[in-house]
TrEMBL record:
GO terms for molecular function: ATP binding; DNA binding; type III site-specific deoxyribonuclease activity. Residues 73-256 form the Helicase/UvrB N-terminal domain. This is Type III restriction enzyme. It is an enzyme of class 3 (hydrolase). It comes from Haloferula luteola. The keyword Amino-acid biosynthesis does not apply. Its EC number is 3.1.21.5. InterPro entries: Helicase/UvrB_N, P-loop_NTPase.
Length: 816
């Protein structure tokens, strides 16, 4: 399978924003110069000396500062961005342009296309992509490879690219002497670290004719593209970038820390509302009550079908050997936990009295009610991780059943903090499964057996052909001596703290990218088939950037929460829209969020994860305007089918009055919740006649004003299911019955208050049990559209509260 690339308006806008900043620059294919030949090597005669081959460097910028600033302001006006009052220079360059693009929207694709456009329009051909880590470097290298044919069709040429290696400096000669588009990818460790290899770029090398690689690089006057520049703002990195003598610098990121001349913005809110990234659903696991009890219970889910509903309930069972083991069971009404557990006393009173498939609850004869996804009792970390694995497998199957017939391969990703938990080795060096791999295979087999109970179908046959051991794989560092999987070396300090220089793992992930997206086929070799059967990926938590796979639909973090990693980073590996077996992106705006839903199985409570993710997104919207007033609307650009229209002062006054008159903005000049509710319900008041032709563009402009309610609304995935009507509803017999029973009725009961109180006290003294420990899993997902006011109210998730708890132990209490 080969990934297909489409022309997207939003990506073209990012490219045009850069290229238009240099409007008026004459096209010059390249300035000839003689490449420095270096010094005579040992034993070489003067007559044999190469006096330098012909080389090409970027032509200088012919526009003066005033022309450049005017172009930049024009680009900013067309996108309704704040206008720069000057060119923001840095120590290493006078021209610095910022491009803000949300993770998953094709940032790398955009700057590669920008290289081709700059070459086509102005003749510039030397580009250097600077990245903060080896991980991102490998991802950029892969992107250049897989887009080569796509850009060949559009531009009739290919870019020559290579990754800088201090041990092979001669590639710089080809970079300099070739007249076509040339791209060098380099990570900051290659020129700002203290190691021997990093210093070579500044040293006269014997194997490079006593030349300094940096001198050969700077002679090209390259255009620098900084990928994730916020991670490269240390003093040493900034000073080192001076050595490259760049023509100008382009900075691409979703979260710029330091701003220069911002010429394009596609933030998290824009990306979500335009269906350019996946919708997010969250499964959080929260601990409730006190620890120390031993009545373990986990209600995994409700199963409907013939003879149902049933509940998937895990509890402890005393085996014949006397050992206690936690075993998942498919239970029905009347199931007695005490009897089925071998007489364990902690389950006294736990007989299933009702299974509610609509509200996902199970009730017991002692009056207690359990919500699906709740874990309680004596839960150690190992048990908690197993629950996360189980939740991930369940979410995977849910997505896979929906997408299999659409030709979409579903992948799930586990982040772990120690390779030994996935794979370990005995004293003889033999491979053994780690605890997570063992738990995965056990839980997968249980889930698979349940899936295979359903009727035979193409999907069921697909599942039968894959074993539990073949459907997962680990991507980790490989020790060169022992060939064992090992933990990566992780940076402890500085800008790269917490990141891994794990070339082996990234190489494996990226090399197998298209294979992982493909279903097995009959003509595949055994090796290809095994690779294509992989649907669950285990990777080290340090490998949290630099690669992604569009068909990751579930992410599970099997490690302790790390405050240094933002929630946006955790979900970033799965935000890209998926592709089908033809490599086509499933990006139809009408159905994108029906197909593209990313489930995050968090290692913290639902509420904590949601709050953290919303705060991360909110921080990323800081560049948005805060006030909606006449001054803000004046001179803004409305893009219509007939061209651009500038909002006049009179039009701005009308818009402002319209918002005030209808209560759509408050005295603090902030957009109100009333506006967003009306927009969501389609009941917005009509605009004045003069503004009606541009209503869509005007409301888009209003929506661009920052509001906390704009954050995505992550719904609880445990919400009540919709009970769809079947053919029986229309039958005459049912309609006759329905006519008799569909009336509402009200019942009134009178109680003697004193008698009720005394009986209540007696019942509480006899039966009151105080809950000790439980875990509760909640799920939520984003709404189909995002409104601003929800962000301000921190109410951006649709959640169905499930407050019923497991009883996990009891303490006698006296009520008086």
């Amino acid at each position: 399978m080969k990934l297909q690339f489409k022309h997207k308006d939003y990506q073209a806008a990012a490219v045009d924003a850069v290229v238009d900043c240099f409007a008026g620059q004459p096209k010059v294919e390249g300035i000839d110069y003689r490449l420095d030949p270096g010094k005579l090597t040992k034993g070489q005669k003067q007559s044999e000396m190469d006096y330098g081959t012909e080389a090409f460097r970027n032509a200088p910028i012919m526009l003066d500062g005033g022309q450049l600033l005017e172009n930049i302001q024009k680009v900013q006006r067309s996108q309704n961005l704040p206008q720069s009052s000057k060119l923001v220079a840095t120590k290493n360059c006078k021209v610095n342009l910022d491009v803000e693009m949300e993770t998953g929207t094709g940032k790398t694709y955009c700057y590669i296309r920008t290289m081709f456009e700059l070459n086509r329009r102005y003749g510039w051909s030397k580009f250097i992509v600077v990245v903060p880590s080896i991980a991102i470097r490998e991802g950029v290298q892969k992107s250049l490879e897989i887009t080569a044919d796509h850009f060949l069709q559009d531009y009739g040429k290919k870019a020559r690219f290579f990754t800088y290696d201090s041990k092979h400096p001669h590639k710089l000669e080809s970079f300099s002497s070739d007249g076509g588009i040339n791209v060098m990818v380099i990570n900051v460790q290659s020129f700002n670290a203290t190691g021997k290899d990093a210093r070579r770029i500044y040293e006269e090398l014997d194997d490079f004719q006593s030349r300094r690689p940096i001198d050969v690089i700077k002679a090209n006057h390259p255009i620098l593209i900084l990928d994730e520049p916020q991670k490269m703002e240390g003093k040493k990195t900034t000073e080192s970038l001076n050595e490259f003598s760049p023509l100008f610098v382009l900075r691409y990121s979703a979260t710029h820390k330091t701003e220069h001349n911002k010429i394009h913005r596609l933030d998290a809110l824009d990306a979500y509302n335009r269906r350019l990234v996946k919708k997010i659903r969250v499964h959080g696991i929260a601990q409730r009550g006190l620890s120390g009890t031993n009545s373990y219970l986990f209600l995994e889910g409700i199963v409907t079908g013939k003879g149902g509903p049933f509940a998937r309930l895990e509890h402890e069972v005393k085996l014949k050997s006397g050992a206690i083991k936690r075993i998942p069971r498919k239970v029905s009404v009347g199931y007695d936990l005490k009897a089925q557990s071998g007489g364990l006393a902690q389950y006294d009173g736990f007989t299933v009295s009702e299974i509610d498939a609509v509200h996902d609850t199970v009730s017991f004869t002692n009056g207690l009610k359990l919500s699906v996804g709740t874990v309680s009792g004596d839960v150690n970390e190992s048990a908690l991780r197993r629950i996360q694995i189980r939740e991930t497998i369940r979410a995977h199957f849910d997505a896979e059943k929906k997408l299999f017939n659409q030709g979409i391969k579903v992948l799930s990703l586990f982040f772990i903090d120690e390779v030994a938990k996935y794979k370990r080795y005995d004293e003889e060096g033999n491979e053994l499964a780690g605890e997570y791999a063992e738990a995965f295979e056990e839980e997968y087999q249980l889930a698979l057996n349940e899936e295979l109970e359903l009727e035979d179908s193409a999907y069921q046959r697909f599942l039968k052909d894959i074993t539990a051991s073949d459907t997962h794989n680990g991507y980790f560092s490989i020790d060169k001596k022992s060939k064992h999987l090992v933990d990566p070396s992780v940076k402890k300090k500085g800008e790269e703290a917490g990141l891994a220089d794990d070339v082996d793992a990234y190489d494996l992930i990226l090399r197998d990218k298209e294979t992982l997206l493909s279903f097995p086929e009959d003509h595949d070799s055994d090796l290809e088939r095994r690779k294509k059967q992989v649907r669950f990926i285990f990777s080290h938590s340090a490998l949290r950037e630099g690669w992604d796979n569009p068909n990751v639909f579930t992410i599970c973090t099997l490690k302790h929460s790390d405050s240094s990693i933002s929630r946006r980073q955790e979900v970033g590996r799965g935000m890209r829209l998926c592709v089908n077996q033809f490599g086509e992106r499933m990006d139809n705006p009408a159905t994108a969020h029906q197909v593209n839903v990313l489930t995050v199985v968090a290692n913290e409570s639902y509420e904590d994860f949601v709050k953290g993710l919303q705060d991360d997104i909110k921080d990323g919207l800081s560049a948005r305007p805060r006030k909606a007033n006449e001054k803000y609307f004046t001179d803004k650009i409305l893009k219509t089918d007939d061209g651009e229209i500038k909002i006049t002062p009179m039009m701005a006054k009308q818009i402002d009055f319209y918002l005030i008159q209808n209560g759509y903005r408050n005295v603090s000049e902030e957009i109100t919740e009333k506006y967003h509710e009306a927009k969501k319900e389609g009941t917005l008041a009509e605009l004045p006649e003069e503004l009606k032709p541009h209503a869509e563009q005007i409301f888009q402009l209003v929506d661009s004003v920052y509001s906390a309610s704009a954050l995505p609304d992550f719904e609880d995935g445990r919400k009540a299911k919709e009970n769809a009507l079947n053919d029986n509803f229309n039958k005459k017999e049912f309609q006759s019955l329905w006519e008799k029973i569909n009336r509402k009725a009200a019942y009134t009961v009178d109680f003697d208050s004193a008698e009720l109180i005394q009986k209540s006290i007696k019942a509480l003294n006899a039966d009151l049990r105080v809950e000790k420990l439980r875990f509760q899993v909640k799920r939520g997902e984003q709404a189909e559209s995002i409104e601003h006011e929800d962000l301000m109210a921190k109410n951006t998730f649709k959640v169905t509260e499930q407050e019923a708890a497991y009883v996990t132990g009891s303490i006698r209490a006296t009520v008086s």
